[in-house]
Amino acid sequence: MKYLLLLFCLWLPAAAATPPPLEPLQIAEQFVAPTGWAEMKDYLCCEAAGQAKRETLGQQIPPQLQRTCQLVAQGDSTAVVAVELQGSSAAEHRDFYLHFAKEAEGWKLGAIRNLAMTHLGPPMVELLSALPPAEVADYNRKHPDASHAFTVGNLRLWTAADADIAAHFRKNRADFRKLLRLVQTGRYFASADSAATGETAANANPAVHALLRKLFLSRVTRRETGCASCLEFVIGGKVNSTVGLLYQAEPALLPAMTPEHLIVLKPLGEGWYLYKTT
Question: Could you tell me the pTM of the whole model?
């Protein structure tokens, strides 16, 4: 009996030290809360473990910002949680994405991602918005393919919060449907062998081009997300860090989210998704 008691005493501290299993959304909410989290390291791995050594991400975020976590997707081995930050100004409205992996002992936060280089947008918008009418007219003469109004609208949409991009889509849903029909009817992307020429032809179509400009979209393509069956309506970005709207009617054919490339894919309804790459 004394040996059983001894074994129980040896087992008790180890059992007490084992962190309780948490789901990705629960881990995210703890990790972005303004207060500290003593058990943080038990739920981190990979990049995140190296980045968050003393403080949670929530402790590094200005305390006045409101934080909202949304589970975007959760499978058997990976999960993605979107985090929205809101403050008193539009500049404080930001989004980032937490990527999780399931290990033997449970879910771990492995990587934190957001759309890169968006800080370049607001100064450009401010500069362009301050141009007097004569300079705006001159700008339009020099940029017939991308007017002053389009460029300002496109820059604002590129750097907008996810909620604002979703609102832009809902407000202009009829035009997005019309744009989709034009591209599908034209069968520009019907053949994988002619994807490049099809893309050029699609964007050169006057009706397609006019709707792209009206919706502040830069182009339609199939080369951004690694999905050979999706249509991607790109807003903009720098280098490989882009944001746009993706269409795929069959959820089973959607590309997988990864911290290395497709960092988020948020459903907007009717087969449309907001996507970001890095």
Answer: 0.90
